[in-house]
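Box 3.1 A note on notation
Throughout this textbook, protein chains are presented in two layers. The first layer is the amino acid sequence; the second is a token string describing backbone geometry. Keep the layers aligned when reading.
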Amino acid sequence: MKIVILDGYTANPGDLSWEGLKELGEVMIYERTKPSETVARAAEAEIVLTNKVVIGRQEMAQLPHLKYVGVLATGYNVVDLKTAHERGIIVTNVPAYSTESVAQMVFAHLLTVTNHTERYAIGNRQGRWSNCPDFCYYDESIHELAGKTFGIVGLGNIGRRVAQIALAFGMKVKALTSKPAEALPEGIQKADLKELFQTSDVISLHCPLTPDTHHLIHQETIAWMNPEAILINTGRGPLVDDFALAEALESGRIKAYCADVMTEEPPKADNPLLKTKNAYITPHIAWATFEARQRLIQVATDNVRAFLSGHPQNVV
């Protein structure tokens, strides 16, 4: 059984092992694959694993041996499911492997804004504390999370975990969700979009990207927000109108934007959010803790093993 991994580097840059997968067949691992290289590299493969390399109708038409596509992620928009189903190709994903990691990143970003730990650490390396006339110094307000309102848009696995952590910090939690109010976990209040935006000190986006949620954050919805609001996006980049948000940050309309995702990845150098004050951008690494990547590879391997046994799992 020939297995090809088209873009294995981000999941495993060398600190993990593909040995479990190698026990299941002949494995060829490519760190990265350009669109023009996809068909040639997967030509003889019956099993292809991909993270961001697109396997669409055109590619499938040129891959007669292909029986299985394993997505090394939870989202599977890189695969043309309709064509795969028509051709009898099994497609699987890796659900919920990064819940803890993404939730942790939400609060890493939030605490960066409220506590300024990195800024003070950098200042101290430059001698600021050593040259201070007092036992401490602070030139930015430091704020407690307890008592603040944390608004969550989307209450799936990650949204629920974020809610639990916010509650542990002593925050009030509101959520925009399709779930009925009586079905929500204790401590979470159901709210509509406008109420959530108007009353939340922190807003965290955890909804899927759909035509209805594309540019959910735009000029009008930004106008609903508290001027001291902190917006966090670890969901999808296009949930946000980059230009409207950059303008709001520059004008002081909202306090801060924290994001691990961008509309285009990698972002163009002229994207205004990269240089806008009070925008804190990380390079899509919320999912990428060692533990989460370890789970990702293990579940992806288990998915292949289940497929080979005739009982595929995590099929999409």
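Residues 80 and 265 are 20 Å apart (CA to CA). The radius of gyration is 22 Å.
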